[in-house]
Amino acid sequence: MTTTVAALAESVIAGDRRALARAITLVESTRPDHRDEAEALLEALLPQTGRALRIGISGAPGVGKSTFIEAFGLHLIKEGKRPAVLAVDPSSRLSGGSILGDKTRMAELGKHKEAFIRPSPSGFGSDGLGFGGIARRSREALLVCEAAGFDPILVETVGVGQSETAVSEMTDMFLLLLLPAAGDDLQGIKRGIMELADLIVVNKSDGALEAAAGRTAADYSHALRLMQPRHRSWRPEVLRASALSGQGIPEIAAKVEGFRAALVGSGELATYRSGQAGQWFQRELGLSIIERLGEHSDLAKVLTDLESSVLHGKTSAAAAARQAVDQLIARRRIDRK
């Protein structure tokens, strides 16, 4: 580890916010030389991680995720906590940058020195698809925030496609926001992730929507009784809230702490995180192999040819993948000679 990386790690652990921002920029970088430094940085920070509660927050567009997170974060600060928010924006296909600007939509929370907000583009793969709606390096950014002493870590998802499953694989608790009395065409996309939810919040439960929110909460409470909980030591619940008025926010914060106490007390949290780490290793392994294949022009051509063969129905995907790995292993043997 270089002196510069060691100094950066020390500054992050000391709570230097500028160092924290630089560290996350480093771990998000795709430059090969930066990846070496990022890996060294993470190795130095790992002993300081693992203490914070990781909360994924998702919901359909328009449900008020950013407004809710701001109200929730401000309440946590009043309770003496230091929340960090990783707001994963949809990416621009032209620039690759964030296009929603979540940080600007949490202006009040962003003013507090006890909070940290980091918007990141969700990113696209070589085929133009995202990595499950979350930035590939979001897990590493989460670890950096933990090392800087922030707790809890809130991960806001794009809220579409496979983002819910992806974020559930890197957080401890999954909080699903719903709209009151939304039509089946909107709420229908959430049926498949009900089993992921540890806490459901019907947001915008105020004014003319309050009665509808009550009915929605009752309907989803009934649905939860028919589902198997994700955790042995925790049964999901449905709460109502208004992020604008603050109604229900203290109760949600209390449930979150109850979740932490239940999983820590039972020992389930440690087991759950261990399983997540294994899943992340498998995912990184596959992506890293593809990257290594692309580092050499001859191997990159082999990869392109194999992909073309699969697309034209000449080779099965499994066979092509094995051939690609065989080519990489053969190349490594040649390089060592």
Description:
This protein is an alpha/beta fold. It is 51% helix and 11% strand. The protein has 13 helices and 7 strands. A 7-stranded parallel sheet has the order 3-2-4-1-5-6-7, sandwiched between helices. Helix 8 (184-187) links the parallel strand 5 and strand 6. Helix 2 packs across helix 3 (32-45). The protein is globular. The relative contact order is 0.10.
Please describe the topology of this protein:
Layout: H1 3-13, H2 17-28, H3 32-45, E1 54-59, H4 65-78, E2 84-89, H5 107-110, E3 116-121, H6 138-147, E4 153-156, H7 163-168, E5 173-178, H8 184-187, E6 199-202, H9 210-225, E7 237-240, H10 249-266, H11 268-294, H12 297-311, H13 317-336
Parallel strand pairs: 1-4, 1-5, 2-3, 2-4, 5-6, 6-7
User: Gyration radius, to the nearest Å?
Assistant: 22 Å
Task: Please count the beta strands (DSSP E, at least 2 residues each).
Answer: 7
Mean pLDDT: 84
In helices, the fraction of residues equals 40-55%
Proportion of β residues? 5-15%
Q: Supply the helix-strand structural class.
A: alpha/beta
Instruction: State the distance separating the first and last CA atoms.
Output: 27 Å
List the total number of helices.
Answer: 13
